[in-house]
Amino acid sequence: MIALLDTNVIVRFLVSDQSPKYKNLYSFFKSLEYGKMKVELKLIVLFQVLFVLKSFYKVPKDQIAKGITDLLKYKGIVIKNKTMIRRMMEMWYNKKLDIVDCYLIAILESDSQNLLYSYDRDFDKFNINRKEP
Fold first, then answer.
1. What's 51's DSSP letter?
2. How far, in whole angstroms, is CA 18 from its chain's centroid?
3. Strand duo 130-131 + 116-117: pairing
4. At what angle do helices 82-94 and 61-72 cross, to 10 degrees?
5. How large is the angle between the packed helices 43-51 and 7-14, nearest 10 degrees?
6. At what angle do helices 7-14 and 61-72 cross, to 10 degrees?
7. Per-residue pLDDT for the chain (133 aa), expressed as one digit of tens each?
């Protein structure tokens, strides 16, 4: 069995929604924090969380990055390539880059043989291989 985490659960938790559901969320995320239960966070859901928090809730980028980075420390939240995702979040927090660019850079940094085809010369500021098609 796979237990997945949906966008609205994470968003409701991170914005501290004061509805009656939040009380249950607090204990749910405490269980995840200590690894008493496990859920998988799909990358597409993570990107949707970032989008919803930034565009709909107008949460500042630094608060989003901190909230997501803290969640990634929870023992019960499983996400593929957690180290790379942490790097992506760190870069997004510290640089004036789009989250997708941060994701691509984090992937490219993980293996020096990786290659990015792009016309965006801003990637040249990083230690990655970029070529124009």
1. H
2. 24
3. parallel
4. 160
5. 50
6. 110
7. 889 999 999 999 999 877 777 778 888 999 999 999 999 999 999 999 999 999 999 999 999 999 999 999 999 999 999 999 999 999 999 988 999 999 999 999 988 899 999 999 999 999 899 999 9
Write phi, then psi, for 118 (nearest 5 degrees): -160, 150
Residue with tokens 């630094």: 62
> 3-state DSSP call for residue 74?
coil
Residue 65 tokens, joined: 């990055």
CB 105 within 8 A of CB 126: yes
Contact 126, 109 (CB under 8 A): yes
